């Protein structure tokens, strides 16, 4: 990073997260326009999420999280506009400490959970608001059109998963994998961010996210079919579980709109 800019790294991090006041954001933007070194530093931060995951493996990070926890309280038209999202290094490191404790202390995501026999590590679905305080949204939190959200999962002992959402307009969106013919393998270990964030559209009443998990490969088409059936069911779409084949577990989280 160029010494001439006097833009500290924490400010560049907050610039990437869109958390700076307007005046400071304009200042950083001016410096980026004139300083190639600062632009290079910004790009380095954009690529650093992978490095953070490698530098903070679960076997080292989880004990630290537990210490903190003990001492601290495809529809057309598409209904969500997807965009690539990169998490800066400092933010990713902070989220490892901010996001995991609630999942370890509570039911996954704070929403509805239906598990499967075997194992004591519960898979979790996390949803957080970009540009917010970094805390995961609780079940029943409010959200509005235009807000950008990021999804993450914790696999527990599950090897495969699918993440979908339904809304009050009957829409269904596949979040993971990105395509219906994609693989359902989950990254083992701790929290994994999905590679794309998304922007909420104008669909009314609610947005409900499902993380379906299993020890065996999942048929994405079956999960989508179950989601479409539930989305079209009316009032029960806000509370009823997905009708899935035996051997699948699911966790869901609702946002009010």
Summarize this, please?
The chain is an alpha+beta fold and 257 residues long. The protein has seven helices and eleven strands. It folds into two domains: 9-46, no CATH class; 74-256, no CATH class.
Number of helices: 7
Residue fraction in strands: 15-25%
Largest sheet: 6 strands, mixed
Q: What is the helix fraction of residues, given as a range?
A: 25-40%
- Total tally of structural domains: 2
Distance between the termini: 42 Å
Shape: globular
Rg calc: 19 Å
- Based on the structure, what is the oligomeric state of the protein chains? single chain
Order of helices and strands: HHHHHEHEEEEEEEEEHE
Number of strands: 11
The helix-and-strand class reads: alpha+beta
Mean pLDDT: 76
The poorly predicted ranges are 72-109
List key phrases describing it.
six-stranded mixed beta sheet, alpha+beta, single chain, 2 domains, 11 strands, 257 residues, five-stranded antiparallel beta sheet
Explain the overall architecture.
The protein is of the alpha+beta class and 257 residues long. The chain folds into 2 domains: 9-46, no CATH class; 74-256, no CATH class. The protein is built from 7 helices and 11 strands. The chain has helices at residues 9-16, 22-34, 36-46, 49-55, 58-71, 89-105, 220-231, and strands at residues 81-84, 112-114, 124-129, 141-142, 148-154, 160-167, 172-176, 192-193, 196-199, 206-214, 249-256. The strands form 2 sheets. Strands 2, 4, 6, 7, 10 and 11 form a 6-stranded mixed beta sheet that branches. A hairpin with a 4-residue loop joins strand 6 and strand 7. Helix 2 (22-34) packs across helix 3 and helix 5 (58-71) crosses helix 6 (89-105). The radius of gyration is 19 Å and the shape is globular.
């Amino acid at each position: 990073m160029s010494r001439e800019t006097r833009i500290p790294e924490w400010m560049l991090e907050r610039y990437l997260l869109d958390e700076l006041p307007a005046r400071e954001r304009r200042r950083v933007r001016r410096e980026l326009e004139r300083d190639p070194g600062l632009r290079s530093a910004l790009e380095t931060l954009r690529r650093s999420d992978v490095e953070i995951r490698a530098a903070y493996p679960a076997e080292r990070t989880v004990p630290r999280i537990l210490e903190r926890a003990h001492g601290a309280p495809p529809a057309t038209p598409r209904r969500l506009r997807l965009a690539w999202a990169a998490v800066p290094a400092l933010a990713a490191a902070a989220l490892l400490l901010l996001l995991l404790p609630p999942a370890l202390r509570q039911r996954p995501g704070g929403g509805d959970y239906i598990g499967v026999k075997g194992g004591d590590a519960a898979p979790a679905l996390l949803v957080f608001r970009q540009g917010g305080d970094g805390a995961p949204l609780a079940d029943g939190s409010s959200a509005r059109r235009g807000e950008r959200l990021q999804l993450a999962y914790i696999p527990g002992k599950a090897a495969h998963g699918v993440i979908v959402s339904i809304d009050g307009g009957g829409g269904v969106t596949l979040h993971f994998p990105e395509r219906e013919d994609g693989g359902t393998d989950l990254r083992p270990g701790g929290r994994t961010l999905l590679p794309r964030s998304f922007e909420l559209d104008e669909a009314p009443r609610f947005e409900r996210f499902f993380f379906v998990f299993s020890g065996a490969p999942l048929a994405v088409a079956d999960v989508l079919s179950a989601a479409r059936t539930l989305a079209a069911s009316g009032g029960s779409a806000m509370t009823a579980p997905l009708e899935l084949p035996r051997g699948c577990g699911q966790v869901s989280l609702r946002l009010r709109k």
